[in-house]
Amino acid sequence: MQLELPNKLRNDRFMPSDPKIYFTLKDFDIEEKHVLWVDQQNLHECLLKLSIQKLIGIDTESRVARTCLDSSKDLMATIQIATTKQVYIFDAKVLR
């Protein structure tokens, strides 16, 4: 089920799946060579390639602050950006 939003974005109403089921790249016909970990050496090249894409998908992983006083900690862990041919994984700790 998809929900159309006013700004033309779609929300697929993603819900947690069964924790006993794990997906692999192979399940989606993605080869490991198409997944790129972004670091300081390839950051500029990856951003250039992403800037010319017409369509991207974005997913993030973050940690939850233990308290509202814990705001000095970095909450973003990884950002995954995918095009039709490549997946880029940005690790916040590596790119500090």
Task: Compile the SSE list and pairings.
Layout: E1 3-4, E2 10-11, E3 35-38, H1 43-51, E4 57-62, E5 76-82, E6 87-91
Parallel strand pairs: 3-6
Antiparallel strand pairs: 1-2, 4-5, 5-6
Q: What do you see in this structure?
A:
The chain is mostly beta strands and 96 residues long. It has a domain of 66 residues: 2-Layer Sandwich (Signal recognition particle alu RNA binding heterodimer, srp9/1), CATH 3.30.720. Helix content is 9%, strand content 27%. It contains 1 helix and 6 strands. It has a 4-stranded mixed sheet with strand order 3-6-5-4, covered by helices on one side. The chain starts with a strand and ends in a 5-residue tail after the last strand.
* Overall average pLDDT: 78
Q: Low-confidence parts lasting 5 or more residues at pLDDT below 50?
A: none
CATH architectural name of the domain at 31-96: 2-Layer Sandwich
Stated plainly, the CATH topology of the domain at 31-96 is called: Signal recognition particle alu RNA binding heterodimer, srp9/1
The succession of helices and strands, N to C, reads EEEHEEE
CATH class group of the domain at 31-96: Alpha Beta
> What is the overall number of helices?
1
Number of DSSP-assigned strands: 6
Q: Profile the largest sheet.
A: 4 strands, mixed
Helical content stands at under 10%
